[in-house]
Amino acid sequence: MTGNAIEIEGLTKTYAAQGNQPPKHALKGVDLTIPAGSIFGLLGPNGAGKSTLINILAGLVRKTSGKVRIWGFDQDVNPRQSRASIGVMPQELNLDPFFTPRAALEVQAGLYGVPKSQRATDRILKAIGLEDKAEAYARSLSGGMRRRLLLGKALVHRPQILVLDEPTAGVDIELRQMLWQNVRRLNEEGTTIILTTHYLEEAEEMCDEIAIINHGEVIARDTTSALIGRMDAKTLLIHPQDALPALPPFPAGVEASHRRDGALALTYRRREISAGTLIEILRNAGVVIRDIATEEPDLEDVFVALTSNKSEAA
Strand 209-214 vs strand 39-43: parallel, antiparallel, or unpaired? Predict the structure, then answer.
């Protein structure tokens, strides 16, 4: 499929008032498109509305208003087709402890109406590294193995879209690497991946595009590189030949500090001053520069800046 895997227009979700608590507006008119074939990050602080959005896509929560199209199917007009187009790996380890991995995959496939002749249970077990645990009860599996099984359950009906909700929370490095290998392989085969994660370096490495949601609204949506490019601040690391007795005066807006390794860190805004100007100031002050390096902003800087600004505005 070309175009968009998911199209969301004016999506709202309001939970009814409980006791003395007023109604909760979990989603406030969300507009979002997710390109087919991409690895798309959905980020936001706790309580931002990510889980509500995912549960609406999965058909587990009813929206209050708005339009949702999944793989071209309108969720209101074609609920079964839209639900069959998406698989969700939840954050919670919700497994029946008395089912084996093989039985869990077979039951899940049956729930989706996959005929026995078309089931790929053995292939999935091999892909998620549980081939040798196929007949072990789920209660005997380690936490990492259970998380792999959740991935397998999300794949039994061969969905075009796979949602990974905090897939690597609390898992070891080996499992994380195995999971991302599988995700990249699925994406190369054409599966659209939607990822929520608190590990921002993970989103920065994996995602083609990212949307940041806060207080039920999408506050940013762009390619990963463009989002990072929004941060204008940059740090110039100067390693002087000799220790600096005193710092020369810098223009307003330049923050100067010393690092433990003896480097001078100059943080500045690229639109206001250039690195060349700062270097010239140092040279005019008699500073002999041994080495120069730069530090660019990362996704964590963007995330903190956007969500903190939104919180202050609210």
Answer: parallel
